[in-house]
Amino acid sequence: MRGPPDSVGSQTTGAKRKPALCPVDKMLSVVPWYNGLPALERNLVRSELRTVSLATGEYLFRAGSKSLGWYGVVEGLVKWTSPGADGKSLSLAGFSIGSWFGEATMLRRERFEYEVIALRPSRIVILPRDTCERLWNHNIEFTKALTMHLAQRVNWLMASYTGNVLLDVDTTVARAVAAQFDAERHADTQGRLKISQEEIASLCGVSRQRCNAALTRLARAGVLQTHYGGMTILDKDALYRRALING
Predict the structure, then answer these.
(1) Which of 3-12, 55-64, 148-157, 207-216 has the lowest mean pLDDT?
(2) What residues does 230 pair with on adjacent strands?
(3) 185 or 234: which carries more pLDDT confidence?
(4) What is the pLDDT of residue 10?
């Protein structure tokens, strides 16, 4: 019996797949101000981005370092801390995929008064200050985005201060989880967060035991479910209520 023509085996069985985006382009693909730029300007901005890779425990910058621009997290998780004269540090926030930070120091043209350290292997992009100033002066969407980041940062710092001074551990842990959930919304993770309990404890500045106990109580309340390699948010509204955040 004669077999099928040779051409049958060489035919494609479906539509061609689009090539996968590199991590930097994937992150930029959901940034509104970037996608709103004219094609030529967008390509120029992309070419001006610098990329930095960090190992766990490696600092992106230390207090006193000069700002190089606006920083964005492509992969991983970094912690924003304020060093004290006694050698201890105050944990301020965590930045995960899609987060941008460092705008205030960049705009003031001052040196950093805080530090950023990687809690896991991370990749960071730096939008140079000269590029930011060009966009600030000529692109209204970028100006709006940067202004909104500044407003959100002030709001977060006020909430962080309240949490460190007045709130209990459960609320502080819920705030840290909510912050990571907000940062990763764009990534279509369906509520799954790739963050360990140890990393949450580090972001909150509490012991791992106290953090685990707080997460257990949140799980029992049906707010989230912990599993190997992270957790899944089951009830976003309940999480915001526990964190005393208006969602």
Answers:
(1) 3-12
(2) 227
(3) 234
(4) 45
Q: Which residues contact 95 (CB under 8 A, 6 or more apart)?
A: 73, 77, 78, 79, 80, 101, 116, 183
The span from the CA of 190 to the CA of 220, in Å, is: 20
* Cα within 13 Å of Cα(168), Cβ side: 6
Q: Which residue has the tokens 């404890």?
A: 201
Domains and CATH numbers, the chain: 23-149 (2.60.120.10), 167-243 (1.10.10.10)
Query: Does residue 165 have a pLDDT over 50?
Result: yes
What's the rounded Cα separation, in Å, for the pair 25 and 90? 33
Tokens describing residue 4: 């099928």
Q: End-to-end alpha-carbon separation of the chain, Å?
A: 68
- What secondary structure does DSSP assign to 126-185, as a single string? EEEHHHHHHHHHH-HHHHHHHHHHHHHHHHHHHHHHHHHHT--HHHHHHHHHHHHHHHTG
Helix (H/G/I), strand (E/B), else coil: 89: strand
> What pLDDT digit, counting tens, does each position of 15-58 carry?
566 667 899 999 998 888 898 899 999 999 999 999 999 999 99
193 Cβ contact list (under 8 Å, min separation 6): 177, 180, 181, 184, 230, 231, 232, 233
Compute the 3-state secondary structure of the chain and give helix, strand, coil in percent, each to the nearest 5. Answer: 45, 20, 30
Given a contact cutoff of 8 angstroms between Cβ atoms, the answer to whether 197 and 205 are in contact is no
